[in-house]
Amino acid sequence: MGKQASHDIMDAIDRRFSEQTDFLAEVTSHASTRGAEQSAQRFMDAQLRERGFDTDLWEIDVDDIAGLPGFSPVLGSYDDALNVVGTHHGRSQNGRSLILNGHIDVVPEGPLDMWRRPPYEPWCEDGWMYGRGAGDMKAGLVANLFALDALRDAGYQPASDLFFQSVVEEECTGNGALACLQRGYRADAALIPEPFDEKLVTSQVGIIWMQVYLRGTPVHAMQTSSGVNAIEAAIPLIAALRRLEENWNSDKPKHARFEHVEHPLNLNIGRIQGGDWPSAVPAWCCFDVRMGIYPGQDIDAAAQEIENCIYEAASQDSYLRDNRPEITYHGFLAEGYSLDDHEKPEAGLARSALEQAHQTVTGDRLQSMPITATTDARFFGLYADTPALVYGPTAEGIHGFNERVNLESTRRVTQAIALFIADWCGLEEYGAN
Amino acid sequence: MGKQASHDIMDAIDRRFSEQTDFLAEVTSHASTRGAEQSAQRFMDAQLRERGFDTDLWEIDVDDIAGLPGFSPVLGSYDDALNVVGTHHGRSQNGRSLILNGHIDVVPEGPLDMWRRPPYEPWCEDGWMYGRGAGDMKAGLVANLFALDALRDAGYQPASDLFFQSVVEEECTGNGALACLQRGYRADAALIPEPFDEKLVTSQVGIIWMQVYLRGTPVHAMQTSSGVNAIEAAIPLIAALRRLEENWNSDKPKHARFEHVEHPLNLNIGRIQGGDWPSAVPAWCCFDVRMGIYPGQDIDAAAQEIENCIYEAASQDSYLRDNRPEITYHGFLAEGYSLDDHEKPEAGLARSALEQAHQTVTGDRLQSMPITATTDARFFGLYADTPALVYGPTAEGIHGFNERVNLESTRRVTQAIALFIADWCGLEEYGAN
Fold first, then answer.
1. Checking phi first, is residue A54 left (phi over 0); if not, alpha (psi -120 to 50) or beta?
2. Model confidence over A214-227: pLDDT tens digits?
3. ipTM here
4. Which of A272, A279, A283 sits opposite B290 (nearest CB)?
5. Is pLDDT above 80 for A433?
């Protein structure tokens, strides 16, 4: 690709950036929490069709994916869990194929009074756009689309096949990305613009979610001493999990890329619920555990170790000893993934192409980092032997309040994505096959 | 009242007891949890009208009662919080007036899988009726009604005014009973057949409910160390409350009637809720505190002591120190009450009448006891100078699972109530004024 083409493409992004910002606000205004992604997905589908993509909008069927590696268990059905893939067919096939992936689902917004303004009425201030999902990861999803728009504005299109994916379920299982694999979408590389500060994610941890359900013996509060309070029974179990976390983190990291990360494996007790009435000793309590593991670490063995920790703590309690906590899995059973471990030559080539694109746009060397979270990259990397680059804009407050994404960063990332596509897929003159 | 009349009345109860059991099952089948009492109350109203009572069915207006002593704060409105009072006017006015009070509201049933059978499909087994509310206190409420039916069957009616009350809100505030006072219903004594094992309740504790709301600093679970987990922040606060409970119970009881009660003041952490997503450090956690106090103990001072305990524990935490827990009252601010302390002569007279009735039915002396719970008796006793007798059937599992009431006990209590009415109100020939 010549300097002129690069310049034209970057320029096209600048010219459309105000439109891109409005588009991002529109996508962010859809409250696409788990189970409520339909309107956002139908919007994405319509936008892809308008741009001439062949689109594939489908409801995920758990039965189709339940037997596949990387599947995470779910409770309930996937009615209305819609994935969208838009396919561009390169005319000349003079390049490598690419998956541009992003997720449409967002985590719950939490108590509204902790937001400065309503989370689904995105607003801009001092160069940031605020709103639930603006950063994680609608800015990246929209960057993928506007990178392609810029190629077209400059008179080009990818010379090879390109699959634009807008998936659900990234925030709890990854089953949306898995369903894309199951449906046959494959390419030579994948790019996911998750909001990691314009750095390349080289390694990501695995994540285990489990839910612990405790029973108590319920009585009227007038006789609390004869009952067992299920809420308070949870406290020593949580303490034991914190000790396990401490042990895991004080051991030598089981993956080289995490040797300089201060606290690679994070436990989170993210949700609790228990009891029905202030004057009844609570008969039940349920809490959610989220724990990280290293890339390459056996997930079943790790889950078993966490279970054992919970059961061992429970066995110290005279009531729980005979009334074992029930442990349920309905969410992440996600392995770690490291791009560094990917031996296929495309891994290095894709990485070089992104480094080049980033340098052209920013003038700086692309930095890389391991992260203590997961992304859908693992599906492409582990289960389809497809190197997956995670590279997206700077955002703050993701999974928190007043989430925001930096707009200049979004612009730069959009430009880098466009140049990466041009390099990786090759360019041909815009037009139908 | 002659022996023949007693015999006829008790006999009438025996004859109708199968009908009474069916009636109790019907009332129990209404899932009259807070906010859902309407169908049960309309049923009670219709039954009272059918029996010739003047009925008064009204929606409680918080504004009418908010300024009265004994009022407990509520969140939200009382739309559809219906009270029912049926009034019988004694023709000859040859006796003392009486309030028969019972509450229609029940506490939530909790997880259905902890019930042997569905809680609102009452069933009988080995002489017990099972179902949520069967014991607490629909058996007593129905006993009140069938005691009056038995008088009529025997050809009698109360010779003085009698008010049959079916109230809401006993389980959380007592504002249903308070609204009856506010509406002008007064009598020389009140009887409440709460399920305390055919014993007379001589003293009851006061109850304070408060809700503690904690905030954390929410972040993505990948950076748990930079966030403050609001769920785990609650743990030291709960521990501090347990220490306060221990101190209060190890001090000499502040009321003579509780000197021989092993653990008079019970703390209960009855409900907890926190966080929205397993992979987000929870930004909030909220738990419910229920604590007992002695009769005569100043409720504001006690509440302040509990608050101080919470704030003091919070001040030990570097984050909570600057982000004080929010404490909200929306439930019991209930003073204790002791019939023993009631100096009005009617207190002794009513007690003697009940002792006599109980002895006639059971052949045993009426036992009495203090309880570590509250009842609506406090409103009559403290705020209307009306001695209030609490005396009802044997029940088990109230506020728990597989709640049940003993049917033979219910029969005996119904007979004792009928004889008590006959004695207290006097009898006259059944018939209109």
1. beta
2. 998 878 878 777 78
3. 0.93
4. A279
5. no
SS3 assignment, position B287: strand
* Bridge partner list, B355: none
Structure token digits, residue A215: 């029973």
- Kindly state whether A213 is in contact with chain B, defined as any CB-CB distance less than 8 angstroms: no
Report the gap between the CA of B231 and the closest CA in chain A (Å): 7
Structure tokens at B326: 């929010």
Predicted confidence (pLDDT) per residue in B377-397, tens digit: 999 999 999 999 999 999 999
The answer to whether B358 touches B423, Cβ cutoff 8 Å, is no
Give chain B positions within 8 Å (CB) of A331: 278
Interchain contact, B277 vs A266, CB within 8 Å: no
Quick check: B96 and B165 in contact, CB under 8 A? no
Distance from CA of B109 to the nearest CA of A (A): 8
Element (H, E) at B59: strand B54-59
Query: Strand (E) positions, A5-153?
Result: 54-59, 82-88, 98-103, 123-125, 128-130
Cα distance between the two ends of chain B? 22
Residue type at A21?
Answer: T
| Interchain CB distance below 8 Å, A400 and B218 | yes
Which secondary-structure segment (H or E) carries A370? strand A368-371
pLDDT at residue B309, rounded to an integer: 98
Looking at residue B220, what is its pLDDT? Answer: 84
List, as ranges, residues 261-280 from A with C-beta within 8 Å of B. 263, 266-280
Nearest-CA residue of chain A relative to B114? A283
What are the beta bridge partners of residue B83?
A: B58
Give me the residues paired with residue A328 across strands: A211
Per annotation, catalytic residue among A37, A56, A105, A149: A105
